[in-house]
Specification:
The chain is mostly helical and 232 residues long. It folds into 2 domains: 21-121, Hypothetical protein, domain 2 (Endonuclease III, domain 1); 125-232, Endonuclease Iii, domain 2 (Orthogonal Bundle). The chain has helices at 2-8, 21-30, 36-49, 53-57, 61-68, 74-92, 100-103, 111-121, 131-140, 148-158, 164-177, 195-201. The two termini are 20 Å apart. Mean pLDDT is 90; it is low at 210-232. Bound molecules: iron/sulfur cluster. Iron/sulfur cluster (SF4) is lined by residues 136, 139-140, 178-179, 183-185, 188, 190-191, 194, 196-197.
Length: 232
């Protein structure tokens, strides 16, 4: 199913623009509660002024905040960016470590952000789980639950490492373009295998007659059947 979705969304990749791991880390911190498009409007000027961790570590909130204000939550993000840069300089020689535990010790960096940077800029398999990955994977039936860490564990257990980053990228794009909160199932390449479609959207005669039929097309909290991922 991931391969089918990858065919529907060729060249799926993060939509953040970056040139190295430091820039992707900063851009991903800025993308919280914002959009990639908005972040991409801010980062060229930001990285011109602060091209690396050493430069950003010397920034002051008064100078940094006006540059990132349009991404929202600019005070917290300013604090996180400066703290992240200072810690990179103090503990990692200014480089971004290719390690989940070390990354998640940086200010403003959770598992999702760390996985984005690991998978896209550092060559370490990572499967970031955002709201799109949660929604789409639950609907299709390849994961179950609202907890990003648990869904990450289910998906990484079920997929080869080399597909982790791709899986996240295609599920995010599918969630943005097709499997939106109100899904466009008629445009979806995996609908024949999708639990949500079979239970709530597909032809009435194909739906189960056990009370699970939901003509409104709105999902319950968990639409997916329970799929046990194989142990690694
Ligand atoms: S069939 Fe509909 S609910 Fe299922 S993945 Fe496709 S768009 Fe989403």
């Amino acid at each position: 199913m991931i391969e089918t979705l990858a065919t529907q969304h060729p060249n799926a990749d993060t939509e953040l623009v970056y040139r190295n791991a430091f820039e992707l880390l900063a851009a991903t911190i800025l993308s919280a509660q914002s959009t990639d498009v908005r972040v991409n409007m801010v980062t060229p000027g930001l990285f011109k002024r602060y091209p690396d961790a050493r430069a950003l570590a010397k920034a002051t909130p008064a100078k940094l905040e006006p540059q990132i204000v349009s991404t929202g939550f600019f005070r917290q993000k300013s604090k996180a960016l400066i703290g992240m840069a200072q810690q990179l300089v103090a503990e990692h020689g200014g480089d971004v470590p290719a390690d989940m535990d070390l990354l998640t010790k940086l200010p403003g960096v959770g598992r999702k952000t760390a996985n984005v940077v690991l998978g896209h800029a550092l060559g370490v398999p990572g499967l970031p789980v955002d709201r799109h990955v949660l929604r789409v994977s639950n609907r299709i039936g390849i994961a179950e639950g609202d907890d990003p860490e648990k869904v990450e564990a289910q998906l990484t257990a079920a997929l080869p490492k080399e597909m982790w980053t791709l899986a996240s990228d295609v599920l995010i794009l599918h969630g943005r373009r097709i499997c939106k909160p109100k899904p466009l199932c008629d445009q979806c390449s995996v609908r024949e295998d999708c639990d949500y479609y079979k239970l709530a959207v597909g032809p009435a005669e194909a739906r189960p007659h056990d009370g699970r039929d939901r003509p409104s097309g709105r999902p319950r909290k968990h639409d997916a059947r329970k799929v046990r991922a194989p142990r690694r």
